[in-house]
Design goal:
Helices cover 82% and strands 0% of the residues. The protein has 504 residues and is mostly helical. The radius of gyration is 24 Å and the shape is globular.
């Protein structure tokens, strides 16, 4: 540092690249670099969910504050004073929250586009390049969110700019998480794919917990007026720290050796998107069905449940932010454990079926506890639900990677995963808010149960669905098994080569 900024930068780069200096193995460095973007990605979405009411107030004009609404209320008051009977105006309904969640869902609709863009980059140029670009775009979008003008400052332009920024965020998300899952899995030992792949979603959960915790701190530290005016900006501006670390770390990682091996052998696809859609349709349908339960369960119970507890339930619960953040931390703890269990029992499906069945049976009980305002019962249900969700989501990561060959893996996993999030996850908050407020406070529970039943059934029959891809069960058994076997052989070959070079 005493020899100028250029020398300092080189020294810092060596600290990251030199695993002996940091005390990190090459595997640990690759894993951390692959995962850091997930924390920022889901931190951003959790902060938006936690501050949705305040963001809605800042960007969408309230109907209750309009002159016509106020005039109507004044007319009713004057008529009452004069003992005159008139038709009372309809009570004013503020739709800020629904509009805010509509923008939230719009970002999810862009995820398939991000899957196409970053999937092509990841399958043709490399996993490393796709990860570098996705975290850069995501960092720019997050910080831009904190700089947007409000409706009071820019009028109609404000919600338009908000939509644009969230759509860009959705594009980056379409490549970030999947790139992290694929890269982290491919750079890990094959017999530990369940564990290492689960780290990708675990860090996404960690970012969500961090965002919820920040949301709880903001609500506890600032008044509603301060949050509506300027407080909502601070968490987004702070995202530059996580984004900067992610960009820096990913500059120094190595490309996936499985990808380099496939490239050297000329196995890469010239059109991975076409191959994913035409050659792996059945696998895509299965991944869509499996991810649908993860997306709905996660967003309902750990993002939207806070809103339900605080504003929708007839018996509102205080400290909803703290409860949701605490359960998310618990989810982070059990997630890698259940990923490891899928390695130990040599079956992703077996662990996932237990989780899916538990979620189907627990959803109505969980919502009933929230409806009744039973804090203790609700907390216990959320803790059990978190274990069930981890049993489904942790093995799911390796399940998706193993379902596709390496030449179209990034594109195929990205399309299947992000399509489910766009169709199911992107509409969950908006739809459940409507169901709970317009139909019945327990309606979201039955919707959640139906998704759990369907997704679990799809997983249970998935070998037959995949067999349709090859025309017969015997053909499928050989071909699908070979997809995972080829990856195993490549990993073992690379590991043996690395061991030989180490011995030499």
């Amino acid at each position: 540092f005493l020899h100028g900024p250029l020398t300092a930068r080189r020294q810092l780069t060596r600290l990251i690249e030199g695993s002996m200096v940091l005390g990190m193995s090459k595997q640990t460095h690759a894993t951390l670099a692959g995962l850091v973007g997930n924390v920022l990605e889901w931190y951003d979405f959790a902060v938006y969910g936690a501050l949705a009411e305040n963001i809605g107030a800042a960007f969408f004009p309230s109907e209750c504050d309009s002159p016509s609404s106020q005039a109507g209320n004044g007319t009713a008051a004057n008529a009452s004073a004069m003992n005159t009977t008139i038709v009372s105006p309809q009570p004013c309904v503020d739709h800020n929250l629904i509009e805010s969640f509509a923008v939230f869902g719009g970002a999810f609709l862009m995820r398939p586009l991000g899957a196409v863009i970053f999937g092509r980059i990841g399958d043709k140029t490399g996993r490393k390049r796709a990860l570098e670009l996705s975290v850069l775009v995501m960092c720019i979008a997050t910080v831009s969110m904190g700089c947007l003008p409000t409706h009071k400052q820019a009028g109609v332009a404000a919600p338009v700019l908000l939509c644009i920024v969230r759509l860009v965020q959705g594009v980056s998300v379409g490549g970030e998480l999947i790139g992290s899952i694929v890269y982290t899995t491919e750079t890990a030992p094959k017999h530990r794919w369940g564990l290492y792949a689960s780290f990708a979603l675990m860090t996404a959960v960690l970012g969500t917990a961090l965002g919820m915790a920040v949301g709880a701190i903001m609500h506890a530290s600032l008044s509603a007026e301060e949050l509506n005016d300027w407080g909502w900006r601070l968490p987004f501006l702070a995202g530059i720290v996580l984004g900067g670390v992610g960009i820096w770390l990913r500059k120094s990682i190595d490309e996936s050796e499985l990808f380099l091996e496939a490239k050297a052998k000329g196995l890469l696809s010239t059109n991975p998107l076409h191959d994913a859609v035409t050659k792996h349709r059945a696998s895509l349908l299965v991944v869509f069905g499996v991810v649908s339960l993860w997306a709905s369960g996660f967003y309902i119970c750990f993002i939207w449940m806070r809103v339900y507890m605080a504003t929708i339930s007839p018996n509102t619960i205080e400290h909803s932010h703290s409860i949701a953040a605490g359960v998310l931390v618990w989810l982070c703890v059990v997630f890698p454990l259940l990923g490891h269990v899928s390695d130990v029992v040599h079956s992703r499906e077996r662990v996932m079926l237990v989780g899916g069945g538990t979620m189907a049976g627990l959803s109505v009980i969980l919502f009933t506890q929230a409806k009744n305002g039973n804090v203790g019962g609700l907390t216990i249900c959320l803790l059990i639900y978190a274990v069930a969700l981890a049993a489904w989501g942790a093995p799911m990561c390796a399940f998706m990677v193993e379902a596709f060959p390496i030449e179209a893996r990034y594109s195929a996993v990205a399309i299947g995963y992000n399509s489910a999030h766009a169709v199911i996850g992107g509409t969950m908050l908006l739809l459940c808010t409507y169901l709970a407020t317009e139909v019945n406070v327990l309606a979201p529970a039955y919707y959640m149960t139906s998704i759990a039943v369907v997704s679990t059934a799809i997983l249970a029959v998935s070998p037959r669905w995949l067999a349709m891809r090859y025309g017969s069960e015997s053909a499928h058994s050989e071909k699908f098994t070979n997809v995972a076997k080829d990856s195993t052989d490549q990993v073992e070959e690379i590991e043996m080569r690395n061991m030989d070079s180490t011995d030499a």
